[in-house]
Design brief:
- There is one protein chain.
- By secondary structure, the protein is an alpha+beta fold.
- The protein is built from three helices and four strands; from the N terminus they run E-E-H-H-E-E-H.
- It has helices at about 25-35, 40-45, 75-105, and strands spanning about 1-10, 15-20, 50-55, 60-70.
- A hairpin with a 7-residue loop joins strand 3 and strand 4 (about 60-70).
- The protein is globular, with a radius of gyration of 15 Å.
Length: about 110
């Protein structure tokens, strides 16, 4: 799993996601389920609800936060970079220990 920062030109939005796709499909879904079991704790740490996307028919799953922001407007760039930095750092704090615990249980 890794944190990814996305730009969506169609929706004029940006997002910070935990992308779970580096293993085989079953392992990815197992990690997603493990994280979902900690949803309340994770969302409390982040201070907001996040979008949980299992993507059942895909290898990967995605957990993320979206923000409406037109990144094509240069005046929005500072706000965008600040949001990315703060949100990615918050994601690391919220997910890191839980993923490490998962890894130890599956060695």
């Amino acid at each position: 799993a890794h944190i990814s920062l996305w730009l969506n030109s169609k929706k004029k939005s940006i997002s910070c996601n935990l992308y779970i796709g580096g293993r085989d499909k079953d392992e990815n879904k197992d990690l997603y389920s493990y994280l979902l079991a900690h949803k309340e704790y994770i969302e409390n740490l982040l201070g907001k609800d996040i979008e949980w996307s299992l993507l059942e028919n895909k290898k990967a799953s995605i957990i993320g936060i979206n923000k409406n922001l037109d990144f094509n407007i240069k005046a929005n760039w500072e706000q965008m970079f600040d949001w990315f930095a703060i949100t990615a750092s918050s994601f690391k704090r919220a997910f890191y220990d839980i993923i490490q615990d998962y890894e130890k249980r599956h060695e």
